[in-house]
Design goal:
Number of strands: 8
Distance between the termini: 71 Å
Helix content: 40-55%
Length: about 525
């Protein structure tokens, strides 16, 4: 009978577990030094080695020929654990055996000494599914377990476990495996199975697996049935994707605001049996890539994209402002939630793309920020070209908002407590070290730097008051808890003194300095209202 690849190549020794060396090294050392505990908690996302490590640990503590913390894999006990025939090792699915009666049976059985092995090991998978009563019953035996009993709990949702159980376990947090680690393992399996695969195909499997080796090998199992060399195109087809090109194609048409072309692309994908939910999810990830490229100093270290794909992503990111990217992610995420409840997933997706092409159709904060930012860019371009205001020739019949003085910006208190160090008012109002502080902020918070790169700061009454050219700076500071600390720490680093911070109160603008009347008209047409 054919055995699935993820079962056939399941690691049987700690040294074979990929991507979790920070855990396997500790477990093997505890076994070799005989300092292992009576209760362990393995937590992390699915398919990353929690249950596998639990079985290896069960073999290691019971193997009579254990060496350097590793089981021999050949003795009767090791073979019995591998094939599930050893009764002293119990693997229990808490999703199915979650009631108090199941735990009572476990407690009664645990009192008996092992029949063959040295320790009774209970592996409780999906432990967060236990009922409250069952968890309390398990807690009783975990408090004072028999010397011959070891509990290993595995869960993907550790926050749902009672704190009383968490405090009695040695906790190990499993990490998602990087795509390159998964790709190397996939190529190893392909070599053993005589499957032809190229580097791009292996890397795409690594990315689609979302950090889980089991999902990667399951996808490889599907790809091998094609009977051809496994390439990125093969993986895309088997995973239900319509290739990677459609992401760039859709995004280019969104940037051009070409609704007709966007809908034609969706129709072509739909006719090709593409899953619109998966397309929406992939498009969210694509806009996330655009966000990383626009905000991070070294996007390549975060995204792990192919060189050609990274270059295309960097080029495409220049077509969108950060506000437009945030708006796109927000709309697509909301759409993905709606799809699960809608009778027509395609309709929900098409509506989302139309909104991205026409921001005026959306009244969300992200959409308004994107539209205002676009208008600001137009103002800068018009002023750079020397275009003068044309207020006098506006026809009386047109509903153009009357140009009025810009409102005075209220000073927003960003921090109530007093500064840590008291300072006297400086004789020189302008804060001399501000440019150095902004450079430090650049390496800490890319988004915050984008608000401050053209700003000035003044030292007044022992506080550094920030005059940002970006009108969204204050709103960002109010909604982002750690932004204030980033600024204060940067100021302290460059001058050695910790100051309080606040916004620089802007003076009222004169009517003649107002935006161009043509721009005001455009804003009214877009439904933004007075600027």
């Amino acid at each position: 009978m054919y055995q699935a690849l993820y079962r056939k190549y399941r690691p049987r020794f700690f040294r074979d577990v990929a991507g979790q060396e920070h855990i396997t090294s500790v477990l093997s050392k505890e076994v070799s030094e005989k300092t292992f505990g009576h209760a362990y908690l393995f937590t992390g996302s699915r398919g990353i080695g929690k249950t596998t490590c639990a079985k290896i640990l069960a073999k290691a503590v019971n193997c009579p020929y254990e060496k350097d913390g590793e089981p021999c894999g050949e003795c009767e006990i090791c073979r019995g654990i591998d094939d599930g025939s050893l009764l002293d090792i119990t693997e229990m699915d808490a999703a199915s055996n979650r009631n108090i009666d199941d735990i009572r049976d476990l407690r009664s059985e645990a009192n008996f000494t092992p029949a063959v092995a040295k320790y009774r090991v209970y592996i409780i998978d999906e432990a967060h599914m236990l009922t409250k009563e069952a968890a309390n019953a398990l807690l009783k035996i975990m408090e004072e377990p028999p010397e011959h009993v070891i509990f290993i709990l595995a869960t993907t949702e550790v926050h749902r476990l009672p704190a009383t159980i968490l405090s009695r376990c040695m906790r190990f947090d499993y990490r998602r495996m990087p795509p390159e680690v998964i790709a190397e393992r996939v190529k190893f399996v392909c070599k053993m199975e005589h499957i032809d695969i190229d580097d791009e195909g292996a890397m795409l499997i690594g990315k689609l697996a979302d950090g889980g080796m089991r999902d990667a090998l399951s996808l490889l199992d599907i790809c091998r049935s094609s009977g051809e060399t496994v390439t990125a195109e093969t993986v895309s087809r088997c995973a239900g994707l319509a290739g990677r090109e459609y992401l760039f194609e859709l995004t280019d048409k969104i940037a051009l605001k070409d609704i007709s072309a966007v809908l034609e692309t969706v129709d072509k994908l739909y006719e090709g049996s593409a899953d619109v939910s998966r397309i929406c999810d992939e498009l969210i990830n694509h806009f996330r890539n655009l966000m990383i490229v626009s905000c991070a100093k070294d996007a390549s270290a975060i995204l792990k994209l192919m060189p050609g794909e990274l270059l295309r992503t960097e080029k495409q990111a220049k077509e969108f402002s950060q506000a437009e990217i945030f708006h796109a992610v927000s709309v697509l995420q909301d759409t993905l939630v709606k799809m699960s409840k809608s009778a027509s997933k395609r309709l929900e997706f098409e509506l989302a793309l139309v909104k991205l092409c026409s921001p005026a159709l959306t009244q969300s904060q992200e959409a308004l920020l994107a539209r205002i930012e676009k208008l600001e860019k137009e103002v800068v371009l018009l002023k750079a070209r020397g275009v003068a205001p044309a207020v006098k020739n506006v026809p009386a019949t047109e509903t153009v908002p009357k140009a009025e003085p810009a409102p005075v910006y209220e000073e927003v208190v960003l921090e109530e407590p007093k500064p840590v160090f008291e300072t006297e008012q400086s004789s020189e109002p302008e804060f001399q070290n501000w440019e150095e502080a902004v450079e430090i902020i650049r390496g800490k918070n890319g988004m915050l730097y984008s608000f401050l790169k053209d700003s000035k700061a003044y030292l007044i009454n022992g506080r550094v008051l920030i005059d940002s050219q970006n009108d969204f700076f204050i709103d960002y500071m109010q909604k982002t808890g750690d932004a204030k600390e980033v600024i204060k720490n940067a100021i302290t680093e460059v001058c050695g003194t910790r100051y309080g911070i606040g916004p620089y109160k802007k003076t009222e603008k004169k009517p003649e300095d107002d935006p161009l009347a043509a721009l005001a008209k455009r804003a009214a047409e877009m439904g933004i209202g007075e600027l």
